[in-house]
Design brief:
6-stranded antiparallel sheet; alpha+beta; about 35% strand; globular
Length: about 150
């Protein structure tokens, strides 16, 4: 089969291979975080763009779930994000960590009530990136240290 240039991979074979890769990544990311993973979504829906949230739990592998036709997950150097495409549009997802479930629920309520946007979400949570970077050996970027107050 490998030497046959006319062989074409069927959709079923391709899907099985992709799902195997995804299962491998779920095994790699089967790690607990200190806190609760919460998702901020910029959602492309049939009636326009909306923001949403989801509280996942404390296992990193839980981020690798999607009901969309196309999904990709990536690290941007600071955060773990995903882009998920479906028949109505594209969802842009940001995964972060809240201190605990109570805090995640407070943040979720603020997202639901449109009291915070993505920037406000980032201020109230911490990055999932260092956890994932630790699994894959990625470098992490550190925040610049604050300058000392010269007036003191």
């Amino acid at each position: 089969m490998l030497d046959d240039d006319t062989y074409e991979v069927s959709d079923e074979e391709w899907a099985e291979e992709v799902y195997n890769w995804l299962d491998d990544e779920r095994c790699n990311l089967n790690k607990q975080v200190d806190g609760v993973i919460i998702v901020f979504g910029d959602l492309g829906l049939w009636n326009g763009r909306k923001q949403g949230y989801q509280i996942l739990g404390n296992n990193i592998a839980d981020i690798l779930k999607s009901s969309c036709e196309y999904a990709e997950w990536y690290g941007d150097g600071y955060n773990i994000r995903s882009r998920m495409t479906h028949h109505d549009g594209t969802n842009y997802i940001l995964y972060r960590v809240a201190k605990d479930r109570e805090e995640a629920e407070r943040i979720a309520e603020k997202i639901y009530n449109r009291e915070i946007d993505e920037q406000g979400f980032r201020k109230r949570t911490r990055s999932l990136y260092p956890y994932v970077a630790g699994v894959y050996g990625w470098e992490t970027r550190q925040r610049k240290p604050e300058k000392p107050n010269k007036a003191a």
